[in-house]
Amino acid sequence: MTQAQTQTSTTTLPRAPLYFAAMAVLIAAVGFLQSWNSALSILNMGLISAIMALGVNLQWGYAGLFNVGVMGFTALGGLAVVLTSMPPVPAAWSAGGGRMILALLVGVGTIALAVLTYPRLPKTRLRGVILTVILVGGFFAFRALFDPAVEAIEAVDPAVSGYLGGMGLPVIFAWPVGALLAAGAAWLVAKTALGLRSDYLAIATLGIAEIILAVLKNEDWLSRGVKNVNGLPRPVPYEINLQQNEWFLGLMAKLGMDPVTGSSIFVKLLYAGIFLAVIFVIVVAMELALKSPWGRMMRAIRDNEVASEAMGKDVTGRHLQIFVLGAAIIGFAGAMMTTLDGQLTPTTYQPLRYTFLIWVMVIVGGSGNNWGAVLGGMLIWFLWVEVEPIGAWIVNVLTSGLEDGSALKAGLIERVAYMRYLTMGVILLVVLRFSPRGLLPEK
Amino acid sequence: MDILNALVAFTNFVVVPATAYGSQLALGALGVTLIYGVLRFSNFAHGETMSFGAMVVVLVTGLFQSWGLSLGALPTALLALPFGILATALLLLLTDRVVYKFYRKVKAVPVMFVIVSTGVMFVMNGLVRMVVGTDDRRFSDGARFVINAREFKAWSGLNEGLALKTTQVITVVVAMITVAALFWFLNKTRTGKSMRAFSDNEDLALLSGINPERVVMITWLLVAALATIAGTLYGLDKSYKPFIFQQLLLPVFAAAIVGGIGNPLGAVAGGFVIAFSEVTLTYAFKKVVTYLGPDSWAPDGLVQLLSTDYKFAVSFAILIIVLLFKPTGLFKGQSI
Amino acid sequence: MSFLHASEMRGGYGGADILHGCTLTVQKGEIAVIVGPNGAGKSTAMKAVFGMLKLREGAVYLDGEDITGLSPQERVYKGMGFVPQTHNIFPTMTVRENLEMGAFIRKDEIEPTIEQVYELFPAVYEKRNQNAGELSGGQRQQVAVGRALMTQPKLLMLDEPTAGVSPIVMDELFDRIIEVAKTGISILMVEQNARQALEIADKGYVLVQGANAYTDTGANLLADPEVRRTFLGG
Ligand SMILES: Nc1ncnc2c1ncn2[C@@H]1O[C@H](COP(=O)(O)OP(=O)(O)O)[C@@H](O)[C@H]1O
Ligand SMILES: [Mg+2]
Q: Which spans are transmembrane here (chain A) (predicted)?
């Protein structure tokens, strides 16, 4: 036992830098073979994926909690960007803003009233009746206020706004707001499903993610729904402005680079710098937490829940904490991603891409190891992006004998697009089976 | 005030579709509950299993149609069903051998099985998309209606029509036969009883000489049949869309848990509870209310409690209520 | 050699040994009773005899044959039946189905055996169509014993069959167990109610910390002042 431990810790040390160096080489290869723009795109999304993986790793690696709602928490982060950084739409606010706020207060108030009265009522049939009256009455009051407010707001210039807009704050503020929104949703789910069978948390998170997405797609007054929100503010300069900037043009001239390509690379590098800083802060904070008494207790609980419970530890309470924290990190990353995209497009959120892919990242990287999560995030994102062109290239080579327009060739190329789902599943299964501790095992 | 018209409208738009949908959910939930009872994990790949089974049926149906084979008024898909079940059974047995068996041997914790099943889900999803792509496919043929809305109006003299699609009738009939056969198997045959025994008390089943690997194999075979039938009926009733099955996972799980996970009777009841709640809460009652109330009452709005876009919220809300107040479900499954 | 001969068993659940050289023998048609303080390893000894625990040392012979390497299922085929201390029924199956599952390995007609169990335990007959999980503690134990009898074992092993039942039901259960023994079935039984159990025992074992502390006939152990003082409460 102790021997095995020392063995892994000695082999982990040189392994991590090696893997990260290999990762850098892979990205550089894309830079040389395809373009530096693609390479940096992969890097940036890889970094964001790494943060999401850190959040999932906190929940799974530290506490053994299976979160199937990563997509939902990511999407809440995206919503936070809209609500925080877009300018408010004064016409919409005056049309129905007040009523909307009132409607939401009534909705929340109804639920709060029900939750507060429930334990105070006698345990008779009366309790059910009173509760039903509160909930049904509250629901109709809510709808009576909500429906006209929605109609009024959505009628305001629907082609360009038709929603309330945001608070017009700098977009960086949206990131912690995204964390808060995700934490709130996670708290609600965990409060109900934790303490029951482990599968139930998974199923409940699956549900909340679907609902968050439904809200984003359908509540136009809030998020413009499927009409998307474009032109989100950025924390970095716009390429077009850079291209007119004296200093920047001078820099490009010195480097001998085309200012158009150069500006886009420059912007991506700025993003990469910000993302790296975020990762650094999160990893350091998590490593410190892991080594604190709190982290040790977390792992003790994970490794033997029954014994910890018997020793008087509040297992469910700790799990709640960690689940909410993990979701907050995912929400933060979700906000970063939407900021990077510059738009919120609710229809692009797919569970396979936003939930299960993150899981593949954590498992492949090494559950319980933060550096592993970062590595897994970068590597799997790289594969996710590159499996398709590589597959298409292979098919092209294999079918080079066939005519260009042949049905077989077209069919094969179409199939390749779906290859990556299969590949990711196989990777997940193979790693779980043959190397369950991942690339960088927990120390 | 027109009670008859209101009743017909309600039947046409709520009762009939919810019964068909409930049958499909019940079959799906039965599969989930059997796996839970015997293998003790929530199978996240179940939606994709349904999709795979339905896909094979769609393909074989196409083949039969091209040969000119048909069942007359009944959809050709019924003829293709056994082939779908067979293919799915092979796939599931293979998956069990290659994937799950190992985790049984090392006695992995339940959540590990759940994660592994998501890996299987990915693979099956990719497989289906690679074979048929992502397009919508309609594959029902034969007579479209058993009762036609126009004929019904003419016959009854009412304003409201009542339509009964062939696929709806077939869904309910096939589901009833399937459920009856399953319950007969579980309650009357020696093998079925040994499955229940294993689900009830694994250690005692072993002491009684019941072979666990055989029980697991039979379970996968039953699950293959249930999933393929459920997927096919859903596809017949609406249309076959590969990605829809992932979204069915939530209502199917909700149905199984509401009924009491691990309890087959509960799964059937849960399926109908979820389906009826979903359809009722998302139905626009404007017509019904208009018929029932005096003219001056006619509502402006749709009188719809919830937009259909939120039908998943219904499953979710019911799930949460059950988890909060009765985690063992209505029929007392093996919970917590 | 005796019908069951488990000698010098040593082993545990992976960690430290629980059994430290425990020996148990039962003759044909005899009732042997194991008593001892909580945590002494009585249940562990039963599991070891039944092959549910890997022995580090020692051997188990049944009717002269070495069965040390056999799995529990194989021991069922050899004529051993076991009623575990807890979880010894199929709760959502009917009482009759419980009996049928007990006879799962049999290929011949099981109806006569079911009749015998019904005769032995009239309460089981009465409740035959109810789910076993809905029965009272005493009735459950009868179902559990009945289930084990369904294989027509030559050796019946019972781990605390009277745990949690009323004194009247306990007496009745003991009577039934004597009846079973009279049909020629050997019985190895763990009991908390040491005094009553030793009264019906042909042979008694007092187990302390995984080893035999006293071994004698039931009557002699009851008469032994040392055993009385330490284990029977005076
Ligand atoms: N499954 C198990 N795994 C590990 N230790 C066990 C297990 N079952 C029992 N033990 C330990 O073995 C010892 C003997 O237990 P047991 O045989 O059940 O005692 P008894 O039946 O005499 O009360 C106890 O210390 C108990 O904690
Ligand atoms: Mg014991």
A: 12-33, 39-58, 65-86, 98-116, 128-146, 166-188, 200-216, 269-290, 320-340, 352-371, 378-398, 418-435
Counting as contact any 3 or more CB pairs under 8 A, the partners of B are A, C
CB A135 within 8 A of CB A110: yes
Any domain includes B214 = yes
Strand order in the sheet with C57-62: C19-26, C4-11, C57-62, C65-66
Please, what is the Cα angle at B228 between B224 and B230, to 5 degrees? 120
Domain that includes residue B315, residue range: 3-325
DSSP state, residue B99 = I
What's chain A's length in residues? 443
The answer to whether the CB of C11 is under 6 A from ligand 1 is no
Distance CA C91, CA B274 (A): 28
Residue B335 lies in a domain: no
From the list B200, B208, B210, the residue facing C91 with the nearest CB is B200
Domains and CATH numbers, chain C: 1-76+193-234 (3.40.50.300)
* C contact test, residue of B34, B36, B208, B265 with most C CBs within 10 A: B208
Residue whose C-alpha is closest to residue A431's, from A363, A373, A359, A379: A363
Q: Does residue B218 form part of some domain?
A: yes
Give the residue from A138, A185, A436 showing the smallest Cα distance to A328.
Answer: A185
What is the C-alpha to C-alpha distance for residues B99 and B116, in angstroms, rounded to an integer? 8
Torsion sign (Cα): C50, C55, C58, C64: positive
Two structure tokens written together for A311: 């020793």
pLDDT exceeds 90 at position C131:
yes
Specify the CATH architecture of the domain A3-88+165-434: Orthogonal Bundle (1.10)
Mapping DSSP to helix (H, G, I), strand (E, B) and coil, where does residue C6 land?
Answer: strand
Which of A130-139, B81-90, B162-171, C167-176 tops mean pLDDT?
B81-90
How far away, in angstroms, is C44 Cα from ligand 1 center? 6
Q: Residue B122 is part of a domain; what is its CATH number?
A: 1.10.3470
Among B2, B19, B83, which residue's Cα sits nearest to residue B237? Answer: B19
Q: How is residue A294 written in tokens?
A: 């709190």
Residue with tokens 């015998």: C116
- The answer to the question of residue B336 being in a domain is no
A236 contact partners, CB below 8 Å, separation of at least 6? A267, A270, A271, A274
d(CA B101, CA B113): 10
Using most ligand atoms within 8 A of CB, pick from C9, C13, C20, C87 the residue to mutate for ligand 1.
C13
Task: Give how many domains chain B has, as a whole number.
Answer: 1
The residue with tokens 């019940």 is: B26
Q: Token pair for residue A281?
A: 């802060």
Q: Which of C154, C171, C150 is nearest to C162 (CA)?
A: C171
Strand C186-190 relative to strand C203-208: parallel, antiparallel, unpaired? unpaired
Of the partner residues B201, B203, B208, the one whose CB lies closest to the CB of residue C104: B208
Say if ligand 1 is within 6 A of residue C40 CB. Answer: yes
Closest ligand to the CA of C163: 2
Cβ atoms of B114 and A204 closer than 8 Å: no
| ipTM of the complex model | 0.89
Which residue out of C46, C52, C90 would a mutagenesis test of the B interface target, given it has the greatest number of B Cβ atoms within 10 Å? C90
A contacts of B46 (beta carbons < 8 Å): none
Residue C19 near ligand 1, beta carbon < 6 Å: no
The predicted-structure confidence for C67-110, as pLDDT tens digits, reads as follows 999 988 889 999 999 999 989 999 999 999 999 999 999 999 99
pLDDT digits (tens, 9 = 90+) for B80-123: 999 999 999 999 999 999 999 999 999 888 889 999 999 999 89
For A399, the token pair is: 């079918």
Structure tokens at B110: 């339940």
Provide the shortest C-alpha distance from residue A430 to chain B (in Å): 9
Nearest chain B Cα distance for residue A248, angstroms: 46
